[in-house]
Write a structure and sequence with these properties.
Blueprint: E1 12-15, E2 32-37, E3 53-59, E4 72-74, E5 83-85, E6 98-109, E7 112-116, E8 125-131, H1 134-137
Antiparallel strand pairs: 1-2, 1-8, 2-7, 3-6, 3-8, 4-5, 6-7
Length: 149
């Protein structure tokens, strides 16, 4: 497999009250943050306010220390859960710290999106935003292990 470089450029940044990496069990559901999109890209947000939720794709830029990356992890760091491979987890410490999260869109004004539930730290680079479409983005009959409930 060749290592062709991939160049990604942020379309914006997260403005969040969460400044440092919280403990794994941290609940992001009530966290309200903003995504500030590059002004030159604001026209691309037209119509997004018609959706209740969005998919935010971002780069976990502070989870890139190779010393923190392990190929086997415990889900949410819980010692009661089994060890699983990093690709069977949502750990941000991975070969490419690319993350995605469904967030509730509270408000869209010009190039500023106010969202709830985004699990990204203040200053995190945002790579893309897509509307969350219930029938398209949720898999019928999807399952997960009992410990992931």
């Amino acid at each position: 497999m060749s290592e062709t470089p991939i160049i990604l450029r942020p379309i914006g940044r997260v403005k969040s009250p969460v400044k440092d990496t919280p403990k794994p069990e941290h609940d992001w559901r009530g966290i309200v943050s903003e995504i500030i999109i590059e002004p030159r890209l604001a026209a691309g947000l037209k119509g997004l306010d018609k959706y209740s939720h969005i998919l935010v794709i971002y780069w976990a830029d502070r989870a890139t220390d190779p010393a923190d990356m392990a190929f086997s992890v415990r889900y949410k760091g819980n010692p009661e859960y089994p060890m699983v491979g990093v690709f069977a987890s949502r750990s941000p410490y991975r070969p490419n710290p690319l993350c995605q999260k469904v967030a509730r869109l509270l408000k869209l004004k010009r190039n500023n999106l106010k969202v709830e539930g985004l699990d990204a730290l203040d200053g995190t680079p945002v790579l893309d935003i897509k509307p969350y479409i219930p029938g398209y983005d949720s898999a019928e009959g999807a399952t997960s292990p009992q410990w992931d409930k």
